[in-house]
Write a structure and sequence with these properties.
By secondary structure, the chain is of the alpha+beta class. 40% of the residues lie in helices and 11% in strands. It contains 18 helices and 16 strands. One of its GO terms (cellular component) is mitochondrion.
């Protein structure tokens, strides 16, 4: 069944209506299913005793070292306790479970200060890819201990790269980043796991202070972020990959030394990439298709996409043909400098002075940072990500033309988006004036850079983004100024089938966005532990209603495949 594009956004569940549907071609039942979902959500939340927007709050688990610890208390340090998942929960928990020797970790941290120092208190600070603990000593000193989870990336390399990145940044930019006190990438060490002991960043998360800042203060703060990014952009590295210490990177991996100007003591090097960016990405993904065909087939058809491994392999082979040509394009070359970047700069990763929130005390969470092309790295900081409908350029963001006709809640939402758009515009214009390389990288034609990011399946398993990128390249090959001619073309039948799948894909995204927003979750289905019972009930309720409403169009089995978070008892 082909479901035409639905383009809408639910700002407030209780005010959802058909006016939010921008494309009137959708089948009646699918539209009704989506509208009905949104229209009952607010009332249902109140029945369950919750508001319709759930805040993500990471819970800390405290343990007093002066008291005897029970086995269950220690187990809470090893397992993930701050949330649950609507789907695939067993796997998610396994990916965040790490056993280690708590006493030896505390002893190692205490020894940083003196042989007499003792660790008196442990606060567990839950993380998605690492376990973090605030260790407080009997003399008042504090240390953050980080232990990587299995889902973080390659063992050993991830820890070694994070350590090298922090050390490199501390010596090259003025914006504070945590100091590394001690670390080990050997899982056989006395702690029994890889770990890093780092400085506790002073201040408070910017999330606690952002709403207290006036417009001028926010602009001043954005200027400081821009200063940091300008400094990062100037640190041009010799290759793409992870930053490593020369002394720690195994000789079995290739390494590229930094210039003497960047690294006069020959401490650092660029080593193997921890991410998937490279001209070899299609080849690596093709190898995964061969090695894990059953898993790939499951991913391709998890949500009823009706896609084959053969088609995926064919698209990857096409990508192999065009990436070399794209990499030589003058505009790509202009923005291809290897740089280190913070790609998740949200308000929780920025710590500021409580008395002067425009003063940055530290930037945390550099774990996934590595050297990659500027056209991949450059982006709006997460806390300045533009709202939907944002237009780049010199135009000034304005309130909607029908603002006076909106209801109170819709007006409030429109005002918030307008403020965000203005802040995004300030960042964009400031980039253009003071950090032109980053501005140019952000302005690079999407056709030229997007293929480098499309060589892995998205979470929904759809081939649409990959195929769409290839179609645009093939059709616009000459207009983009690429040499020779496109090495492939798509025939009319392939293009027709793609258009149908685009419609299905866009409809699925609309449904996903609606469900995620109203359940207060993300693509993985994460829910805060305290809200689990109510959110799980709401998910089952909405699922049953969706199945019922779609029953005249498709079978219950087919509809179930389209639901983002299939209830366990469905």
């Amino acid at each position: 069944m082909c479901l035409p594009l639905l383009s809408f956004r639910i700002h407030q569940a209780s005010r959802a209506s058909s006016k939010r549907i921008q494309n009137g071609l959708a089948p009646v039942n699918y539209v009704e299913a989506t509208i009905k979902l949104s229209s009952v959500i607010s009332a249902k939340w109140h029945q369950l005793g919750l508001c319709c927007s759930i805040q993500f709050v990471h819970q800390s688990h405290f343990s007093d070292r002066s008291a005897s610890r029970r086995k269950n208390d220690e187990e809470d340090f090893f397992r993930y306790t701050s949330g649950r998942w609507l789907v695939d929960e067993k796997h998610q928990l396994e990916q965040r479970y790490v056993r280690f020797n708590i006493d030896n970790l505390c002893s190692q941290a205490a020894s940083l200060f003196s042989s007499e120092t003792r660790c008196m208190r442990i606060a567990k600070l839950e993380g998605n890819f690492s376990k973090a603990f605030l260790l407080t000593m009997d003399d008042g000193n504090e240390v953050i201990a980080k232990i990587p989870c299995p889902n973080v990336g390659p063992p050993v390399l991830t820890t070694e790269s994070e350590v090298a990145t922090l050390k490199f940044l501390r010596s090259h930019i003025s914006t504070p980043v945590p100091e590394v006190y001690h670390w080990s990438s050997e899982p056989t060490n006395p702690v029994g796991a890889e770990y890093i002991l780092i400085e506790k960043t002073r201040g408070v998360p910017l999330a606690e202070k952002w709403n207290t800042l006036n417009t001028i203060q926010r602009y001043r703060f954005i200027d400081k972020i821009l200063e940091m990014e300008t400094a990062l952009q100037r640190l041009q590295l010799p290759a793409y990959g992870g930053l490593f210490l020369q002394e720690s990177l195994s000789s079995s991996y290739p390494r590229y030394p930094l210039s003497s100007g960047l690294d006069p003591n020959n401490q650092f090097c660029i080593g193997t990439s921890l991410l998937k960016f490279a001209l070899s990405a299609p080849r690596r993904e093709l190898a995964r298709v061969v090695a894990k065909g059953d898993d790939v087939h499951t991913d391709l058809n998890r949500f009823g996409n009706n896609q084959s491994i053969e088609e995926y392999s064919d698209l990857l082979q096409k990508m192999q043909l065009i990436l070399p040509a794209l990499s030589q394009h003058p505009l790509v070359q202009e923005s291809a400098a290897s740089t280190v970047w913070h790609t998740d700069l949200h308000l929780g990763n920025i710590f500021v002075c409580p008395d002067d929130p425009t003063t940055i005390e530290g930037i945390i969470d550099w774990q996934s940072a590595e050297a990659a092309p500027l056209f991949i790295q450059a982006r709006f900081p997460e806390f300045l990500r533009p709202p939907k409908g944002y237009r780049s350029g010199t135009n000034v963001p304005k309130l909607p033309e029908n603002f006076d006709e909106l209801g109170p809640d819709e007006k409030e939402s429109a005002k918030e988006e307008h403020i965000l758009a203005i802040q995004s515009k300030y960042y964009e214009i400031s980039c253009r004036a003071h950090n032109k390389p980053v501005f140019n990288a952000m302005a690079l034609d999407r056709c030229l850079w997007e293929p480098f990011t499309r060589c892995q399946l998205p979470s929904n398993g759809s081939l649409v983004p990959l195929r769409n990128s290839l179609i645009r390249i093939a059709e616009d090959w000459e207009l983009l100024g690429l040499s020779d001619s496109s090495p492939f073309q798509f025939n009319e039948e392939e293009l027709k089938r793609h258009d149908e799948q685009v419609q299905f894909y866009e409809d699925s995204l609309s449904l996903w966005d609606l469900v995620k927003e109203q359940l207060g979750t993300d693509n993985s289905g994460w829910i805060h532990s305290e809200d689990w019972e109510s959110v799980n009930k709401m998910n089952k309720y909405l699922y049953n209603m969706f199945i019922d409403t779609m029953s005249e169009e498709i079978s219950a089995e087919e509809a179930a495949k389209r639901w983002p978070f299939l209830p366990k008892d469905a």
